[in-house]
Amino acid sequence: MRTIEVIKGGAFSTVQDMGRYGYQRYGVPVSGALDQFALRVGNMLLGNEEGDAGLETTFLGPTLRFHFDATIAITGGDLSPFLDGQAIPGWTTVSVPGGSTLSFKGPKDGIRSYVCVRGGIDVPVVMGSRSTFTRSRFGGFHGRALATGDMVPVADPDSGSPQPTERSLASQDVPRYGRHHTLHVTMGPQDDAFTTDGIDTFLASEFTVTPMFDRMGNRLDGPVIQHKKGADIISDGTTRGAVQVPGSGKPIVLLADCGTTGGYTKIATVISTDLPRMAQAQPGDTVVFRAVSLEEAHRALREQEAVIASLSR
Amino acid sequence: MSQYPRFLPVGDKALCIELGDSISEATNRWVHGLSREIGSLGARGVLEVVPTYRSLVVYYDPQSISYADLTSRIREMEGPLGEGEAVAARLVEIPTLYGGEYGPDIGDVAEHNGISEAEVIEIHSSADYLVYMMGFLPGFPYLGGMSERIATPRLKTPRSAIPAGSVAIAERQTGIYPVESPGGWRLIGRTPISLFDPGREPPVEIEPGDYLRFVQVDESEYVDVQSRMRAGTYALVMHQMGRTQ
Predict the structure, then answer these.
(1) Domains of chain B, residue spans
(2) How confident is the model at residue B43 (pLDDT cuts 50, 70, 90)?
(3) Does the pLDDT at position A120 exceed 80?
(4) Which of A18, A23, A231, B232 would bridge A247 by S-S if both were Cys, CB 3.0 to 4.6 A apart?
(5) Would the pLDDT of B98 be above 80?
């Protein structure tokens, strides 16, 4: 059996893929990897489908024993991965002989690391996705974070996929997350609900990531962003990346597990290519927002897609 | 000329189309009509459409369709389907066991409004409620159309666990808890209908844009529907409402 035994679950390790589309109209969040770039690159390096499921680990990673000869790629934040006591690099394929143990010694850069395995994590598909949505307890591994004793199944690689060779992401393409994050945003959809001062405050101030951060979103602290009349709107659709400003005037950046609808004004939306930076931020990190046009956001996206496409084989 | 529809980019992978700035059945029917039309366009790169009270969000893949192409395709089709020209709606019956242990707050609702429990049931089950949208919890319907005569404030201290299927009132809204969850709404009854089941395809029994009617059942009918629901042999009782308007 191609299984990974969970020796320790770590702070919060879940199975995630590229998310669950088509069910938001029923109130089902998209979920999926918070750092989609990392998951996709990991899968591409391994010759997997880019949307195959991997393990998203948080802050203190898990300890995992591989019960088969595996090839893995660890991407995203650098949580100091070790294989049988030996440090291993990220953003590259690593051979893991059966019986080896993967562990993490703690975060060096970023807080979410992706353990991608050749073949992909093989849990049942729920509503078109293998992603875990812990709040409603479905998807992923029994709808919950991994815990000691779990045996996580890994699929056989496609028979047509090439034999694994050692492959790495070019070093100039490897993200460095740091502790200070510049997030580019497109304004709106409700930027007209804010005063000119409010918009200036949003775009010219530094905000701090608070301890209230999870897969739903990151609450930020900083100067109050002023509304014209109030923070409440008739509930409408909410998307990952939306910067919600409730009555407190303190922004919340929504992430993959956010509700599908919400009743707070959204001043701006973080562009897709910068969203991984928010997912890799930890309490105490600082954040500034910079407005770009939709065209600039799409250009950044094309550039990133070209990096990912260059990894296909 | 109306300022609606109003097209707003929502980041680089979604588009919001606002059709009004208030909660009304006419606007919401327009939302659901347009939502279905966009869904049936089958346009390459359109991932999904999420209807809400007075707007909808269209998720798209900018690698497959540009924002300009997407908006112009929707503008072209939005012409004939104007406000109020909604498509036919379904009326779905929700068998409900009122009061007792299934609806422990029905006495509070009666007392707050100075009426009897029987009148609460009579009022609650005699209206047709529009499912304006779903959200908050998977499968949770936001319903409109409840009489003010049974409006009741939320509990001061929310319950830590409300059973799935609970039919409840908060202020001037009524709703159904699709899954067990904490909450402060007043519980007046329970339906054996499983509103959300992640293992079922589709996972929901009702759709945004449907109308719901609560139909009072007794305990034996409740148990009967519940066992058929679990066996997968229960079919919702539905009526076609025809073209509204």
Answers:
(1) 6-78, 90-240
(2) confident
(3) yes
(4) A231
(5) yes
Facing residue for B54 by CB, picked from A23, A188, A234: A234
Hey, are the CB atoms on B54 and A272 less than 8 Å from each other?
A: no
Q: Identify whether residues A117 and A10 lie together within a single domain.
A: yes
* Whether A186 and B11 lie within 8 Å, measured CB to CB: yes
B203 touches chain A (CB under 8 A): yes
Q: Residue range B46-72: average pLDDT?
A: 96
Q: What is the reported pLDDT for B245?
A: 42
Assign A72 to helix, strand or coil: strand
Rounded percentage of chain A residues whose pLDDT exceeds 70: 98
pLDDT at A164: 66
Chain B residues 99-128 with CB within 8 Å of chain A: none
Q: Residue with structure tokens 């775009």?
A: A203
**A115 and A206, same domain (yes or no):** no
Q: Where does the pLDDT of residue B79 fall: very low under 50, low under 70, confident under 90, or very high at 90 and above?
A: low
Residue pairs spanning A and B at CB distance below 8 A? 131
Per the structure, the complete domain to which residue A276 belongs is given by 180-309
Q: Is the pLDDT of residue B81 over 90?
A: no
- Third-level CATH fold of B6-78: Gyrase A; domain 2 (3.30.1360)
Task: Indicate whether A90 and A237 sit together in one domain.
Answer: no
